[in-house]
Structures are given as C-alpha cells and as structure tokens.
Task: inverse folding
C-alpha cells in the first residue's frame, strides 16, 4: 500500500531528520516524464499516436513537477483516512460490547435490589423462591395442557393424540395458547416437530400418548435452551417406548 509506505517513511524521516525520501522519488519520476514528454512534444512525428502521447506526457510531466508534494501527501492522507475508518469500526465494536456489559450489570443491579427489597438480602431465600415459582409454573402449564388435551385435542378420548390432523391441531392449539406469552415459541415448536419427525415409534403406534404429549409441551415451553428441546423430547418419547415395552411383556 503506497499510503502506508509513505506514512512509514515519513515517520522514519521525522525521527532521523530530513525530508521524506518519497518526495524525491516522485520528483525524479516527474522529471523523467517531463523530459520524455518534452522530447516527444518538441520533435513531433507524423504518427498521430506519438503526437498525442507526447502531448499527454508533456502535460503530465508539468503537472507532476508542480504537484509532486501533493501526490505524496494525498497518499498519506488516504492511508490516514483508512486507519481512521478502522479505528471507528473498532471503537464501535468496543462501544457495543461495553453497552452489553452495562446492560448486564444493570440487570444484575435490579436483581440485587429486588432481593434486598423482598428477601432482605437473603440470596438463598430468593433462590428457594425461584425454585418454588418454577415448580408452580410447571404445575400450571401441566394442568393447562392436560385440560386442553382432554377437552380439545383427544377428540375420541382414546388417551392418544393420533398422528395427522389430530396432532397438527393439538400443536396449533398450543401455539395459540402459549405463543402470546412465550416470545420464541415458534422456534420451540419447530424443535419439537423435529424430534417428532425422527421417531419411528410414533409412525408405528399411530400417535403419541396424551400424557406423553403433555410432558412434551411442558418441556417445549419451559426448557431454557431451545436447542436442547429435541434431545429432551426424544428422551421423553424413549420413556414412553420403554413403558409400552414393559406393558407388552
């Protein structure tokens, strides 16, 4: 990069004294172009190309002689502008990272204030309360899912959510119920469908036991990591397969 080279040479010249050698280089090149152009301009040829090139070189030589310092300065300026843009990008990334860390600390501060206000600074008591609320939430979701499945999903009351329209209707109903309160429910449902598509036992049995479907919905709504939903759902379905095998025996 010419600008970077010019900048480094300038820094070296400033440290050791003297003018930037690049100025001399551009000046020598300007003299060479001027002499060649002058020769072609003063002793023209019958060739149109030679006349045009001679005139162009002569004009370019004059321009370079008069503006050789500006050429080097422009190259250095372009390099400095490039460095400034890179610095701005780096500063923006650092600012975004700092803002994210500040938001995280602000949330932590709010959490500590809540602990201090409601639990008088007792963190263990707050953790126990969170666990209790988590159990209550699981219980409420399980009860809600159970009632929905019993009333609207398992239409033939055979304790099985049959594959096809019945299962699709059940999932659509759950999306209507939980989609408004769970922000990423669409992604969670997609992960659940991936787990259901990969189970041969569902195709073999023609559906899912209603109790198993209730546990699947509980997992889908409450699992903290969306990407773990297929794994946990398969584990629940494997538990159903084990129960069926034991009953068969």
Result:
């Amino acid at each position: 990069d010419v600008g970077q080279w010019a900048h480094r040479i300038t820094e070296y010249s400033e440290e050791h004294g003297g003018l930037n050698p690049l100025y001399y280089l551009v000046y020598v090149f300007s003299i060479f172009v001027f002499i060649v152009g002058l020769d072609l301009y003063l002793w023209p040829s019958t060739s149109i190309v030679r006349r045009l090139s001679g005139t162009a070189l002569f004009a370019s030589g004059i321009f370079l002689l008069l503006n050789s310092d500006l050429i080097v300065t422009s190259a250095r300026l372009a390099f400095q502008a490039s460095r400034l843009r890179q610095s701005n990008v780096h500063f923006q990334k650092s600012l975004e990272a700092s803002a994210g860390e500040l938001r995280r600390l602000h949330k932590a501060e709010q959490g500590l204030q809540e602990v201090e206000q409601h639990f008088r600074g007792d963190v263990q008591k707050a953790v126990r309360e969170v666990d209790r609320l988590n159990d209550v939430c699981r219980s409420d979701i399980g009860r809600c899912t159970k009632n929905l499945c019993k009333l609207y999903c398992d239409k033939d009351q055979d304790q099985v959510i049959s594959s096809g329209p019945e299962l699709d209707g059940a999932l659509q109903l759950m999306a209507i119920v939980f989609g408004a309160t769970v922000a990423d429910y669409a992604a969670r449902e997609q992960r659940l469908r991936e787990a259901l598509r990969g189970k041969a036992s569902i195709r073999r049995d023609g559906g899912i036991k209603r109790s198993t479907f209730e546990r699947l919905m509980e997992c889908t709504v409450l699992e903290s990591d969306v990407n773990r939903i297929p794994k946990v759902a398969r584990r629940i379905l494997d538990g159903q397969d084990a129960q069926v095998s034991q009953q068969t025996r």
The beta strands are 160-162, 207-209. The CA atoms of residues 111 and 168 lie 40 Å apart. Residues 241-249 have pLDDT under 50 and may be disordered. The first strand starts at residue 160 and ends at 162.
